[in-house]
Amino acid sequence: MTNQEFNSSLLKMKPKLQRFAMSLVYDREKAPDLVQDTFLKALNYKNKFADFTNFNAWVFTIMKNTFINNYRRNVKENVIIDKITDMECADQPHEKGHFSPETNYSTGEIEMTIDSLSDEFRIPFRMHINGYKYKEIAEELGLKIGTVKSRIFLSRQKLMVMLKDFKE
What is residue 112's predicted lDDT score, i.e. its pLDDT? Predict the structure, then answer.
């Protein structure tokens, strides 16, 4: 497909793309922006288009993916993240080093209960609560990712049973 044919085909699709954009965003002001973004991406990536394939489907896929990516970006921007590094201190007074006796006892009991798990459950669980991703745990321990997820899930189940007295 020549550049002129490509551009002509793209411009002929504009009414269809505008309708599709409206069906995605339900906003008369945002729909033209989505069409424009789609045109821009199609023009930037026209070398990726394979001749003798469905041009319309290719452009509609670009629009759908652009919409999805924009939606995900907007959701991430609107999420408020409360970063508390030490969850034990979340509802404690802000005086440095102040812990109530109940907190120390509960934390100690929970730690002992976690330590009472067998190695096959305790190690992946500890790594998970220390911030390792499932994939990192699997690689470190030489396990399949499904096995890691299963062991962490089962660890949680066991801990919920063992620590049922700590529920509010």
Answer: 85
